[in-house]
Q: What sequence folds into this?
């Protein structure tokens, strides 16, 4: 998860610096020099094609359903009045079979973000629910 986040942030910074370069030439040149060779003003204009081809096969519902599950995990921690850094010994995910399957595609990310040690899934129900047991 950390490597994926770093790659995304690096790409986003590169694109934003190239877009802001004509408006903020000195600032963007300085920031560009911290991690790239050459000048931001000689870099190519951002091309949306590589960004859209990466996401072409992706299902946006995976992000939506996983976000719902993570929100429920965080809500449970908040209601228990514990830190978001508190470990969860086990969490049980339930909901429509398709939604549960999508969340399981991102299970490792959900476990890392929610500090979940063991995640189990039981398809069933009309909406995503998560029951947690704090460590």
A:
């Amino acid at each position: 998860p950390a490597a994926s986040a770093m790659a995304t942030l690096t790409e986003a910074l590169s694109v934003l610096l190239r877009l802001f370069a004509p408006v903020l030439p000195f600032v963007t040149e300085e920031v560009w020099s911290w991690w790239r060779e050459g000048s931001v003003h000689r870099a190519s204009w951002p091309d949306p094609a590589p960004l859209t081809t990466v996401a072409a096969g992706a299902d946006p519902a995976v992000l939506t359903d996983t976000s719902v599950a993570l929100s429920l995990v965080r809500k449970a921690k908040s209601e228990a009045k514990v830190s978001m850094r508190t470990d969860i010994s086990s969490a049980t995910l339930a909901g429509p079979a398709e939604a549960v399957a999508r969340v399981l595609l991102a299970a490792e990310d959900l476990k890392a973000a929610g500090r979940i040690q063991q995640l189990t899934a039981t398809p069933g129900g009309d909406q995503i629910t998560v029951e947690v047991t704090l460590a």
Observations:
- The longest helix spans residues 60-79.
- The radius of gyration is 20 Å.
- The CA atoms of residues 90 and 118 lie 5 Å apart.
